[in-house]
Design a protein that fits this description.
The chain contains three helices and seven strands; from the N terminus they run E-H-E-E-E-H-E-E-H-E. It is mainly β. The radius of gyration is 16 Å and the shape is globular.
């Protein structure tokens, strides 16, 4: 339900569904004591988000650390936008041999950025939240 400001909380199940509709999001973490926010191609399996990267900021700032991952979208028809945020712990699953990691590495995930992306990072969500914003009817 939308409040007077036009903000509407998106239920978790719908947030998980929205995660499956896109292939590019933003990963936020810290590396060297400094925050970063970078775009990544990603895939999902259920509520698990996975992305590939090379050695560098994304890997050093996410592997076994607390992260946030965000996607958003815009609906031209009704001039609304939505945002989904996954908060959790990221793990480098590149060499993991457990069933879940093997399954995640089998997802169809082809990064747009050039170069070898040998590392697979998965986010175990602790929370998945979202909200939608619709402008007042008189602005349509």
């Amino acid at each position: 339900m939308a409040d007077h400001s036009g903000y509407q909380e998106i239920p978790r199940d719908e947030c998980v569904g929205l995660l499956a509709t896109a292939t590019v999001g933003r990963i936020a973490g810290t590396a060297g004591g400094r925050p970063f926010l970078l775009p990544v191609n990603y895939a999902v399996d259920g509520d698990r988000v996975v992305f590939r990267t090379s050695a560098g900021t994304k890997l050093s700032g996410t592997a076994f650390g607390r992260v946030a991952f965000e996607i958003d979208g815009f609906d031209d028809a009704d001039r609304s936008w939505w945002s989904v945020v996954v908060e959790g712990v990221a793990s480098d699953i590149s060499d993991m041999v457990d069933e879940q990691s093997t399954k995640l590495r089998s997802l169809d995930l082809h990064p747009f950025a050039p170069g070898e992306k040998a590392y697979w990072v998965a986010i175990q969500p602790e929370s998945i939240t979202g909200r939608r914003v619709r402008p007042p009817a008189d602005l349509h």
